[in-house]
TrEMBL record:
<keyword id="KW-0812">Transmembrane</keyword>
<dbReference type="GO" id="GO:0071555">
    <property type="term" value="P:cell wall organization"/>
</dbReference>
<dbReference type="InterPro" id="IPR050922">
    <property type="entry name" value="LytR/CpsA/Psr_CW_biosynth"/>
</dbReference>
<keyword id="KW-0472">Membrane</keyword>
<keyword id="KW-0735">Signal-anchor</keyword>
<protein>
    <submittedName>
        <fullName>LytR family transcriptional attenuator</fullName>
    </submittedName>
</protein>
<comment type="similarity">
    <text>Belongs to the LytR/CpsA/Psr (LCP) family.</text>
</comment>
<dbReference type="InterPro" id="IPR004474">
    <property type="entry name" value="LytR_CpsA_psr"/>
</dbReference>
<feature type="transmembrane region" description="Helical">
    <location>
        <begin position="20"/>
        <end position="39"/>
    </location>
</feature>
<dbReference type="Pfam" id="PF03816">
    <property type="entry name" value="LytR_cpsA_psr"/>
</dbReference>
<keyword id="KW-1133">Transmembrane helix</keyword>
<feature type="domain" description="Cell envelope-related transcriptional attenuator">
    <location>
        <begin position="88"/>
        <end position="229"/>
    </location>
</feature>
Amino acid sequence: METRKEKRKQKHGSKKKIIWIIIGVLLLGLIGYGIYLYVKLNETVETMYTPLESDSEKQEEVETRLSDKDTVNVLLLGVDEREGDYGRSDTMILLSLNPDTEKMLMFNIPRDTLVNIPGNGEDKINHSYAFGGSELAVQTVENFLDTTIHFYSRINMEGLKDGVDAIGGVTVNNDQEFSHGGHHFPTGEITLNGEQALIYSRMRKEDPRGDLGRNTRQQEIINELIDEAMSFESFTKVDNILDTLGSNVQTNVDMEKMQQLFMDYRGTRQETVKEEIAGTGQMIYSESAEQNIYYYVVSDQEQNRIQTLLQEHIEEK
């Protein structure tokens, strides 16, 4: 006959077994979900992966820079897609990631900037995408900044709405009250859903700073998107985030390089250095259009300044 002590021991042992079974089931579930996410991430990266013809020429430099953890440059192209053609790059943002200083240099190139587009003569820089897609846009920016673009990411601007909604919205600090696109944006800290974020980032006519004010808002939205996407709170939303990326993004970053960038360059988020390209708006006669066209004209002095600033950031240790 079992004593009371032995019965208590058996009962205690049964409880322990149940606890370990529950822990085991939870661990299996987490491992299974982890495998599912890894597979889905691989599939998403494969969907997004769109290499450029010029990548082969830069392959050795890119591999050396990643191996040595040197600064790399990334061009973000925000594109308004149109049926039957490439569309135009509504947004061009240069990110230069320096892991030695843990700084990210970030600046917009105003879309109306007058530049030489290879094979097409002088025109607005955003037309480079319309003429030759991401390949020509990258080449044009490289010539304008006298640097190498190691990676690019082409984002469908309409997909920005989905991206913001996927992470549950973004919070920005608005310094100018305005109404645009059927929405009102008061000053101060405001939280935006996807549609609001897209409208907020596109407004420029009501802004006394014009394109420069618009550029500042776009930078803020992108900064917040990156911060939110990398936060622990977004882990539960990773499914939606990956679906949005796969549907709206093209890039020449493959899975291996994406892992290297995440492991070795994530520290550059510690400090974001924002810069502006100064210029003047001018109406210049276009022979092809047979009318005066508005251009954002950057002086040689200002172009040299921004090129030097970028090079110093790249070389800083």
